[in-house]
Design goal:
Layout: H1 6-16, E1 22-24, E2 27-33, E3 39-49, E4 53-55, H2 58-65, E5 72-75, E6 79-84, E7 87-92, E8 114-118, H3 120-133, E9 137-143, E10 146-152, E11 162-168, E12 174-179, E13 190-195, E14 199-203, E15 207-212, E16 214-215
Antiparallel strand pairs: 1-4, 2-3, 3-15, 5-6, 6-7, 8-13, 9-10, 9-12, 10-11, 12-16, 13-14, 14-15
Length: about 220
């Protein structure tokens, strides 16, 4: 028997926005990948998962857990047994071939062209601005000796935009964009690495994301 703490439940809820399914693996790491392979995420959790278990509808599984207050969870050979006091639920595993799972190998950026620490306040403000302005891209841009994070429409130079100055920057100019729909992050400050080869890496203390990048 085991319990999922609130932090782990928050990670699972976040991951359900990337992929509706998940494969639990033994150990203390949770991983997911979007069906389009544009976002991959990995988190270190406090619990140790005892065995493999595939869940087809993660939101439904989390809703089942929420039916009880702080339930115990048992990983059986073909199902979860979830219980608290006199209440019990049996939740059958999905077949692994029914879900999209991340690769087992370690993911590395082909190259790192930019590395910067960005606060959650700045990230959140730009994501919120993208919603208000109804634009679809979050851009990292170097221009005039500064590095910016922006909300804009990368295909329309005259679109409304919102910029946050991140730091001074004395390197080569660039403009790299991430689709807002792919930027589904846990609230945290991040060390961000960007590669012109088409990938970014967002890393916080317990969770990290690899997200596709479009270089303009």
């Amino acid at each position: 028997m085991m319990k999922f703490c609130e932090d782990t439940l928050s990670v699972l809820k976040n991951f359900s926005g990337i992929n509706q399914s998940i494969l639990f693996q033994d150990g203390n790491t949770l991983k997911t990948i979007s069906p389009q392979k544009t976002v991959m995420a990995s988190a270190t959790i406090k619990e140790s998962i005892p065995s493999k278990a595939a869940v087809y509808d993660l939101s439904r599984f989390l809703s089942t857990l929420s039916l009880m207050n702080d339930p115990d969870i048992e990983f059986q050979s073909d199902k979860f047994v979830i219980q608290n006091g006199r209440s019990k639920s049996k939740y059958t595993y999905a077949a692994e071939n029914m879900i999209v799972t991340p690769p087992n190998k370690e993911i590395r950026l082909p190259s790192v062209d930019v590395s910067i620490k960005v606060s959650w306040d700045d990230i959140q403000s730009v994501i919120r601005a993208a919603g208000v302005l109804q634009v679809g891209d979050i851009a990292f841009t170097a221009a005039d000796g500064k590095l910016y994070m922006s909300a804009k429409d990368s295909k329309n130079p005259s679109s409304d935009s919102y910029d946050v100055e991140l730091s001074d920057y004395d390197g080569e100019a660039f403009d790299m964009c991430i689709k807002v729909e792919n930027l589904k992050l846990m609230p945290a400050d991040y060390e961000i690495e960007l590669s012109r080869a088409g990938m970014s890496h967002f890393k916080s203390e317990n969770v990290e994301y690899w997200i596709a990048v479009q270089s303009n």
